[in-house]
Amino acid sequence: MMLMPFQILGMWFRGLFSIALLALAGWLLYQWNEHRVEYVEVPAEVRTDGNGDHQVGTTETRAVHWEFGFNRETAFLLGGLGLILFSFGGRWVYPRLLLRRANPETAPRAERTGAMHRLRRPDGTEIQAEVYGPADGPTLLLTHGWGLDSEEWFYAKKELGGHFRLIAWDLPGLGKSTSPNDNDWNLEKLAGHLGAVLELAGGRPAVLVGHSIGGMISLTYCKLFPQAMGTQISGLVLVHSTYTNPVRTAALAPIYTPLQKPVLEPLCHLMVWLAPLVWLMNWLSYLNGSAHRSTARTSFAGNETKEQLDFMSRYNIYAWPGVIGRGMLAMFRYDATSILPAITVPTLVVAGDRDTLCSPEASEHMARTIPGATLTTLKPARHCGHFERHEEFCAMLKEFMVSHWQTPSVGSARPAGTPVTVH
After folding, report:
1. Is residue 416 part of a domain?
2. CB-based contact 190:220 (threshold 8 Å)
3. Residue 403 and residue 416: Cα distance in Å, rounded?
4. Are the C-beta atoms of residues 42 and 63 closer than 8 Å to each other?
5. pLDDT tens for residues 138-155?
6. pLDDT tier at 322, thresholds 50, 70, 90
7. How are beta strands 58-64 and 37-43 bridged, if at all?
8. Average of pLDDT values for 106-118?
9. CB 133 within 8 Å of CB 156
10. What angle in degrees, to the nearest 10, is found between the helix axes of 321-332 and 275-287?
11. Backbone angles phi, psi at 141, to 5 degrees
12. CATH number for the domain including 356?
């Protein structure tokens, strides 16, 4: 599941809800056990002495009298067992209740078949990067969203790998990349890691493709190293991303913004401090299906398959909560507004018309401010519209490359800067 700082509220709610379900199940089973028996007092011992028989003490025994049927005890038992089954198997119910279609033939899979590279960084991080496609093809460097990993680009690797040289990498602490020794995930440092991965292009300029925080990292890199535009960087593709603190460009920004300091930031710190507990809560929310429901509501517009929904929901249990919390705290400090009018390379901005995490208005602002930028809107689409509507997304990437670079093998060209809306 793709994560933004304000989603910390939902994560804690789902986790506590999951624990509450198990607690309620335990209470119901305890009540069933207590009500299905009665205690009967019986003599403990009878002795005979010179004065006759007499009783020495009494004891209690449990006499089971419950029978399965329409009674309170049966309700306690069935309710407790039902909640336990739901807590550990609800995920098999939610996707079907949401009426999502199944399509095993196009199901995303965790595949790493490219040429593997391990990049050792000064902060102790080991970055995992993979290279796909022809060595002489135009280069696309793919940066995934927060809480995900490079497997997010499964469809891009499959549909574009024959035409372009693709470099996909895992952000620190996610996927196959290790965490930094200093536990620092600020976007300036992540942009430095992006620069190291960019060296895998072998001196050839690359188009930076970034989803969500991936787009933020790309803009931060341009802000820190403007001289790279036109030399190391030949273009930008900003997918469901934003130009500043994402709390301010979310659909519910008027609510989230005042909550940032008193609520959201403390919850992020709490997520870091209580990472093992949050990890357990994330597992429960995945198993009971509440993670699937949240992912369907925030990431997809209703055209995803069951396999795609489960694939994205599974990231709830892959990413360590301490990493997620620190990354969220770093996003609060992000701002690349100043670099937008200074971007000198062709830029494609991809928006989702129903995206509530990075609103379409944020994409529109970037497209207006970046000179010559092209705005493309996927319809209907939310924050993972590029994944849900992967065929349209990959087609627009091909068009963008043809528009600005000589790549006749991937399709016909169209004039640069032409806005596109995919329905």
Report:
1. no
2. yes
3. 5
4. no
5. 999 999 999 999 999 999
6. very high
7. antiparallel
8. 89
9. no
10. 100
11. -100, 120
12. 3.40.50.1820
